[in-house]
Amino acid sequence: ESELSVDYYKTSCPNFQNIIRDTVTNKQISSPTTAAATLRLFFHDCMVDGCDASVLISSNAFNKAERDGDINHALPGDAFDVVVRAKTALELSCPKIVSCADILAQVTRDLVIMVGGPFYTVHLGRKDGLISKASHAEESLPRTNMTMDQMLDLFKLRGFTAREFVALMGGHTIGFSHCKEFADRLYHFSKTTPTDPDFNPKYAAALKTFCANYTKDSTMSAFNDVLTPGKFDNMYYQNLPRGLGLLITDSLLFKDPRTKPFVEIYAQDQSAFFSDFSHAMEKLSLLDIKTGSQGEVRNRCDQFNSIKA
Ligand code: HEM
Ligand SMILES: [Ca+2]
Ligand SMILES: [Ca+2]
User: Fold this and answer.
1) 16-141+285-294 carries CATH number 1.10.520.10
2) pLDDT digits over 184-194, tens only?
3) Is 44 a catalytic site residue?
4) Are the folds of 16-141+285-294 and 148-281 the same?
5) 229: Cβ below 6 Å to ligand 1?
6) To bridge 273 with a disulfide, which of 101, 197, 234, 250 should be the other Cys (CB 3.0-4.6 Å)?
7) What is the distance in A from the centroid of ligand 2 to the CA of 90?
8) Is 177 helix (H, G, I), strand (E, B) or coil?
9) Whole-complex ipTM
10) Closest residue to atom 2 of ligand 1, CA basis
């Protein structure tokens, strides 16, 4: 971490910032779901063996890679695509200099800003990891069926306080979730009540109609933040007390006394949310950084430089 710096590419790739910004702008304008897709991709990278682009590796005959773990199957193509586009542009300008892990970190930050979110500093100089295993993804990522104890433990293991955890969850102010991720809350909540009573009844009714066909059409998905789905703001927290949280793990944030106070702060005060989110993202961006011989600068983001059999 101490080997990282803000101006790491200042002499080796002076156009780094501009190339990333141009790539991000073009991609987000043509595919507005890219920002949310990439924020989730980055979160999934950093939680599993650190921010080392391990999530970008493709499987081969010898290795089932992280992105092919069940939990990563829905990671959207647009997020991988924006990284590949930036890498391609950077290789033309400064070949073999910029790591995929740095590209993903910087692209995410610029996309968050583009959809209205706060600035935070991205330190640079990460090396790309040499391991990518589907099993690691299954072990390290949160799931919607976790209890609050399990979620707090998982984030604590990565060094995050309850407050930082709640701030990071604000990522769900953009993007969407597939119906299967919250279908149990709508149709099979318990023996006596098919629908989770924590849902706002009108919202639940609309979702039930919308998702009715989800087993046949697995692409059906709903906005995480029903009111401002494309804007990075604090609406996610304002939604929770009104029963407009989409995933059961979202609604738990307002039920548990350990997290509820922070939801209330962020719902009232967007600048408090932005300041905590920035801080937590900076921290996320520094998880288990590889430097020196712990990693490499990949030639292609989806392959290690030497294929190990
Ligand atoms: C308890 C923790 C978390 C759980 C259980 C969780 C779960 C999920 C699930 C199930 C989806 C829907 C995926 C799909 O159907 O395609 C989703 C989407 C998303 N998550 Fe999370 N998540 C968590 C934390 C976070 C954090 C900390 C961030 C970012 C800082 C984040 C960012 C996102 C984004 C941006 C999307 C939308 C992706 C898109 O539109 O393509 N999540 N999350
Ligand atoms: Ca990783
Ligand atoms: Ca929003």
Assistant:
1) yes
2) 999 999 999 99
3) yes
4) no
5) no
6) 234
7) 21
8) strand
9) 0.99
10) 142
Residue with CA nearest ligand 1 atom 1? 142
What are phi and psi for residue 295, nearest 5 degrees?
-155, -165
Extents of the domains making up the chain:
16-141+285-294, 148-281
56 lines ligand 1 (CB under 6 A): no
Dist CA 187 CA 173 (whole Å): 24
Q: Look at the domain 148-281 and name its fold.
A: Peroxidase; domain 2 (1.10.420)
Which residue among 44, 123, 136, 172 is the active-site one? 44
Q: In a 10 Å sphere around its CB, with 0-12 CB exposed, 13-18 middle and 19+ buried, how is residue 197 labelled?
A: exposed
Residues 267 and 173: beta-carbon distance below 8 Å:
no
- Which amino acid appears at position 130 of this protein? L
Q: What pTM was estimated for this model as a whole? A: 0.98
59 CB burial (10 A radius; 0-12, 13-18, 19+): middle
Q: Which of 177, 228, 277 to mutate to test the pocket of ligand 1 (most atoms within 8 A of CB)?
A: 177
**Cβ–ligand 1 contact at 32 (below 6 Å):** no
**Which residue matches tokens 């979202």?**
250
Q: Is the CB of 171 under 6 A from ligand 1?
A: yes
Does residue 225 come out as left (phi exceeding 0), alpha (psi in the -120 to 50 range) or beta? beta
d(CA 281, CA 21): 19
Residues in a beta bridge with 222: 177
In b/e form, how buried is each residue of 205-226, taking b as 16+ CB within 10 angstroms? eebbeebeebeeeeebbbbbbb
d(CA 46, CA 282): 11
- Tell me which residue has tokens 């080997």: 3
Contact in structure between 93 and 7 (CB atoms under 8 Å)? no
CA separation (Å) from 212 to 74, 205, 227, 239? 20, 11, 21, 23
